[in-house]
């Protein structure tokens, strides 16, 4: 008997050839996703990525844990998931359903709950939570469709639905459904459009996403300035400023720490 052939026989008996083939195919797609979406990974080989990328390792162990969970084997899938969490910092419940080509960038702090469903070609950045609300059983975690990008630190809570091609801004808290091809920012999340068009690309310029709160403040400031102008024309007296107010400026490309 060849060395290691006993382990192969056990694996085939437990999972079946079809399940092992599926896990291998999913791993190939996950490695391709890392190479395509992380500029730092494009110069690395697949073996290097597998050995050094915690997000890829967490996905591989989840694929195995999920297969064991589907086979109805007790304890083992949870032990695999817990070990993966301790090693990679990514916590994925064995029952969570994850499609092809998921990329978890950096990965630390990512949590994916039991009834979460993730489609194909999804990108999650560090600190993302797909969490539940309440203690009731049943569907209580988000469903994320294909081609969705979720920024670092974002929290998606409850059995909400995130539509195809949507983008969730960093540190947003999402508790309602997200329309397809939209960008959602803020706490609680507000859907906005990027130049009235569908967002493109697997990554987003998180530092310059539309900010509905800032837009509202800017509109109010403009309205106050217009009222002051009308008051000056009507009375001939310009209102005295009560505070040192400086206009908002565009900091794109400048030092954010500058005065």
What brief labels describe this structure?
UDP N-Acetylglucosamine Acyltransferase, domain 1, 5-stranded parallel sheet, 15 strands, elongated
Structural commentary:
By secondary structure, this protein is α/β, with parallel strands linked by helices. It has two domains: 5-208, Hexapeptide repeat proteins (UDP N-Acetylglucosamine Acyltransferase, domain 1), CATH 2.160.10.10; 211-249, no CATH class. It has six helices and 15 strands. A six-stranded mixed sheet has the order 3-6-9-12-14-15. A five-stranded parallel sheet has the order 1-4-7-10-13. Helix 1 packs across helix 2 and helix 2 packs antiparallel against helix 4 (54-70). Mean pLDDT is 82; it is low at 1-12 and 251-259.
In DSSP terms (H or I, runs of 4 or more residues), the helix count works out at: 6
The first-to-last residue Cα distance is 73 Å
- In what order do the strands lie side by side in the largest sheet? 3-6-9-12-14-15
Report mean pLDDT, rounded to a whole number.
82
Class based on secondary structure composition and strand pairing: alpha/beta
Report the order of strands and helices: HHHHHEEEEEEEEEEEEEEEH
β content, as a range? 5-15%
CATH fold-level topology of the largest domain: UDP N-Acetylglucosamine Acyltransferase, domain 1
The geometry reads as: elongated
CATH architectural group of the largest domain: 3 Solenoid
Largest sheet: 6 strands, mixed
Classified by CATH, the class of the largest domain is Mainly Beta
Query: What is the helical fraction, as a range of percent?
Result: 25-40%
């Amino acid at each position: 008997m060849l060395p290691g052939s006993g382990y192969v026989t056990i694996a085939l008996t437990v999972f079946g050839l079809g399940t092992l083939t599926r896990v291998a195919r999913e791993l190939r797609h996950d490695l391709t996703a890392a190479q395509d979406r992380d500029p730092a990974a494009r110069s690395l080989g697949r073996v290097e990525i597998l050995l050094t990328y915690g997000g890829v390792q967490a996905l591989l162990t989840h694929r195995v844990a999920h297969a064991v969970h589907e086979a109805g084997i007790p304890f083992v899938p949870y032990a695999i998931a817990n070990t993966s969490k301790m090693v990679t910092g990514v916590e994925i419940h064995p029952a969570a359903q994850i499609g092809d080509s998921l990329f978890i960038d950096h990965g630390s702090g990512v949590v994916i709950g039991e009834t979460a469903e993730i489609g194909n070609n999804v990108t999650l950045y560090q600190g993302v939570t797909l969490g539940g609300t309440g203690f009731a059983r049943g569907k209580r975690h988000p469903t994320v469709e294909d081609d969705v990008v979720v920024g670092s630190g974002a929290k998606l809570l409850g059995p909400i639905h995130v539509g195809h091609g949507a983008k969730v801004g960093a540190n947003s808290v999402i508790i309602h459904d997200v329309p397809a091809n939209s960008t959602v920012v803020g706490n609680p999340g507000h859907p906005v459009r990027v130049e009235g068009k569908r967002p493109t690309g697997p990554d987003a310029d998180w530092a310059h996403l539309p900010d509905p709160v800032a837009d509202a403040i800017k509109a109010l400031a403009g309205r106050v300035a217009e009222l002051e102008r009308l008051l000056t024309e009507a009375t001939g007296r310009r209102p005295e400023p009560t505070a040192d107010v400086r206009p908002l400026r565009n900091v794109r490309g400048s030092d954010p720490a500058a005065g």
